[in-house]
Amino acid sequence: MKINRLSICPLASGSQGNSIFVSARNTSILIDAGLSGIELEKRMSAKGLSIKQISAIIITHEHTDHVKGAGILSRRFNIPVYINKRTCQAASKKLGKLDFVQYFNCGKLFKIGNLTINPFSISHDAADPTALTIKYQNIKIGFVTDLGVATNLVKEHLKACSLLYLEANHDPEMLMLNNSYPWALKQRIKGRKGHLSNQAAEKLISEISSKTLEYIILSHLSEQNNTPEKALQTVTQSLNTSHVSFNVARPDKPGNIIHL
């Protein structure tokens, strides 16, 4: 894919695995690689994409649903892995030996080809969890999943995005009525180092929405404590969204490629 636009495609989203394809001209990257290498290759192929075009894999945190295929893809295709040091240490057993590692620090910009990456810290139960904005020319997109609370830092970074890939993990009522989840797990999910609810996602969007925002992709939906319909209804009910296109990233198949 060599299109003179910024393009993204959700490959997987949810507790079973997360990965997002981002591309601009000759630079293509994966944000996380939380499925097996074979499955990620298959999903990319289904959208006309090839793992051989990937310039880098960026890891946001060490949980298995974000790193499962990163090590094998890096070794098989000589793809550098961009990761912060604490996350790399925490994920070392899951990643295995990496021959190509580039460390980044939250709060410090770095470039991969013609993409400018701005990593920033978020609140989650991981060693050093990271969210990202990516800029290409005058287009900015934001990727924020696996966070318990939207801090002022998060809101500042997400201002003026054209596309927002945002967690809407759970419906609070469904979570609390779920008898298969122990109380401690419910409190973890609801806590400051857990996951954003639909209502919290709606509040964040309402605070940072601007005329530049064209696309919102809701992600990391719980299959037990949420539905795409509930997430969309909650997030859109009080927003002026006539200029925004909404999508929900799926756990079982890749989404559409969006060109900005």
Structural features, described:
- The chain is an alpha/beta fold and 260 residues long.
- It has 2 domains: 1-104, Metallo-beta-lactamase, Chain A, CATH 3.60.15; 147-249, 4-Layer Sandwich (Metallo-beta-lactamase, Chain A).
- It is 28% helix and 25% strand.
- It has 10 helices and 14 strands.
- It has helices at residues 37-46, 64-67, 70-77, 85-90, 92-95, 152-158, 172-177, 183-190, 198-208, 228-236, and strands spanning 6-12, 19-24, 27-31, 56-58, 81-83, 101-103, 110-112, 115-121, 130-136, 139-144, 163-167, 215-219, 245-248, 258-259.
- The strands form 2 sheets. A 7-stranded mixed sheet has the order 6-5-4-3-2-1-14. A 7-stranded mixed sheet has the order 7-8-9-10-11-12-13.
- The radius of gyration is 17 Å and the shape is globular.
- The mean pLDDT is 95.
Structure summarized in a few sentences:
Helix content is 28%, strand content 25%. With 260 residues, it is α/β, with parallel strands linked by helices.
Observed structural traits:
single chain; 260 residues; alpha/beta; Metallo-beta-lactamase, Chain A; seven-stranded mixed β-sheet; 10 helices; 14 strands
List the helices and strands and how they pair.
Elements: E1 6-12, E2 19-24, E3 27-31, H1 37-46, E4 56-58, H2 64-67, H3 70-77, E5 81-83, H4 85-90, H5 92-95, E6 101-103, E7 110-112, E8 115-121, E9 130-136, E10 139-144, H6 152-158, E11 163-167, H7 172-177, H8 183-190, H9 198-208, E12 215-219, H10 228-236, E13 245-248, E14 258-259
Parallel strand pairs: 3-4, 4-5, 5-6, 10-11, 11-12, 12-13
Antiparallel strand pairs: 1-2, 1-14, 2-3, 7-8, 8-9, 9-10
Helix pairs in contact: 9-10
